Amino acid sequence: MNITHLTVRYGAFTAVDDVSLDIPPGGAVGLVGESGSGKSTLARALVGLAPVSAGTITGVPAGHTQMVFQDPYHSLDPRLTVGASVAEGIRLPRGERAAEVTRLLDLVTLDSAVASRYPRELSGGQRQRVAIARALGARPELLIADEITSALDVSVQGAILNLIRDLRARLGLAVLFISHNLAVVRYVADVIAVMHAGRLVEVGPTDEVINHPREDYTRTLMAAVPSIGDRLTAPPPDGP
User: Fold this and answer.
1) Under 8 Å CB-to-CB from 234, ≥6 apart: which residues?
2) What are the extents of the domains in the chain?
3) What are phi and psi of 99, to 5 degrees?
4) Cβ-proximal residues to 96 (8 Å cutoff; 6+ apart), any chain
5) N or C, fewer C-beta in 10 Å, the chain?
6) Residue-wise pLDDT tens for the chain (240 aa)?
């Protein structure tokens, strides 16, 4: 996907300001920034849920981008079974959907028996896996993951991150992974894009941004994550 000079305005307020970013086929871009920086608005614009005031989005046909939201409980209809929720996004004849639901649940490492259960009967991690399976039902070229681990227990977050990495490798998916946590993004992304006040302030390969940040704002984000901030500011060791 090629995002060129994209702007999103709500009245006089500019939520996304002249953003240009490339997400290559099969690539993983991590979009980071504090709350209110415009990350989620940009994501919503890419799937048609926020108005584009200027700029262009090219490279991925309409309908071939799917988004997984932060809170898996609110993104799933509580009146539908898991199977029915996953089937909503499947573009196959009705007679083939049950088998496809089973395949999608297997992709996200859930037993097919989960299809008959309701979201309220599942854990947060299981619900997020269902939301990912539903998004995959549309056979997307680009998956947008918007803070998908922030509402989960720490013990579950790693498993979901590993799942995203595995799905990308198995399916050749491009991924836009959005988070306020650089440590999380670092684990899944080839490229990191840093967003502040609606603008991209730094973009580069993950290791380069982590080890040699150019912007003070990036350093501030890194300092908020001890495992990264300590490495950035620690004095060099004595001796050779």
Assistant:
1) none
2) 70-171
3) -65, -35
4) none
5) C
6) 999 999 999 999 999 999 999 999 999 999 999 999 999 999 999 999 999 999 999 999 878 999 999 888 888 999 999 999 999 989 889 899 999 999 999 999 999 999 999 999 999 999 999 999 999 999 999 999 999 998 888 889 999 999 999 999 999 999 999 999 888 899 999 999 999 999 999 999 999 999 999 999 999 998 887 665 554 443 434 444
- Could you give the 3-state DSSP secondary structure of residue 172? coil
Neighbour-count burial of 50, counting CB atoms closer than 10 A to its CB (0-12 exposed, 13-18 middle, 19+ buried):
middle
Burial class of residue 52 in the structure, from the number of CB atoms within 10 Å of its CB (0-12 exposed, 13-18 middle, 19+ buried): middle
Six-digit token string for 5:
């000079």
Q: How far apart are CA 166 and CA 207, in angstroms?
A: 21
Residues near 83 by Cβ (< 8 Å), separated by ≥ 6?
Answer: 98, 101, 115, 116
Token pair listed for 71:
């809170």
User: What is the Cα–Cα distance from 175 to 30, expressed in whole angstroms?
Assistant: 8
Which residues, at least 6 apart from 59, have a Cβ–Cβ distance to it below 8 Å? 1, 2, 23
Per the CB < 8 A criterion, the answer to whether 226 and 214 are in contact is no
Rounded Cα distance between 128 and 76, Å, is 9
Tracing tokens 């108005």 back to the chain, one arrives at 51
